[in-house]
Specification:
Layout (H helix, E strand, L loop, with lengths): L8 H12 L8 H7 L2 E7 L4 E7 L6 E6 L4 H16 L11 E4 L13 H17 L2 H8 L7 H11 L3 H11 L4 E7 L2 E7 L19 H4 L11 E3 L16 E7 L4 E8 L1 H7 L3 H11 L4
Parallel strand pairs: 1-3
Antiparallel strand pairs: 2-3, 2-4, 5-6, 5-9, 7-8, 8-9
Helix pairs in contact: 1-4, 3-4, 6-7
Length: about 290
Amino acid sequence: MELADCGSLEKIADEIFRQMSEIPTPVPIEDIALALDIADIRGLEADGFEGGLVTDAERSSGAILVKEGSSLERRRFTVGHELGHFLCTWHQPPANDGFRCSTGDMRKTITGQVDRLADIEVQANRFSVLLLLPAVAISRDLKKKAGVDIEHILYLAGRYQMSKEATARRYVELRGERCAAIVSHLGKVLRIYRQRDFPFIDVRSGEAIPRTAITARLNPPLGRPSDCETVDGSTWLSTTIGTRLPSLYEQVLVQANGYRLTLLSFDEDEVDEAAEDEELRESWAIRFKGKR
């Protein structure tokens, strides 16, 4: 594969898919890496590190390192992440011998970091998602099933051999309906993924899940999504006295070791009705412009 003059993450991923002519599912990430001058993909035994990249200054070749014992999904994501470092020539390693990427690096999602090294880890994560959950293929799959549902996230995670969290993030990004996904652990919020037109969620990372939320109250069987239930918008969204918020649908998946995945969406009929109420529409519009 040749990737000359591809100056952004999206352009690199698009050119890779263009040269493949069709996108296999799951995406053969290791084959792609080997076709792009990665000479070897081998095990890494180092505490605290998920992956690494050994390469020269010219990026003429490289070797990707993956933590020994990683699950299939994590291995695939790590290979995509390190391939991103390799192909993004503006990614300069902190050491002469290449990159060493920690578990924390693999979870960075917020761009525009003041810390240059943190920012390139965010970019490498983004590149891995672009390759392993291709927008064209995912969008095609999303059209086959209407509505917002964790069951569909689980299906896509299996189909593309990706983690539930990474798939949920991409699902929220590409789903036509307004929705948001929340990852929590032992009752506290870890990460929030939402569409640009989804209102600001009034819970921060590290804070407790709202007591009135379905996520806090229900205990469905491990690995089986709950039914979608309606909750008052104020459960998750900020509000002021005298302002009515749209109702939310909330669904939760209980996972191992205290983790939970929550999916929020709107009663779209209620949102449409609000369009006829100018005052209410304006109050909601303010919330729909909240920053990520």
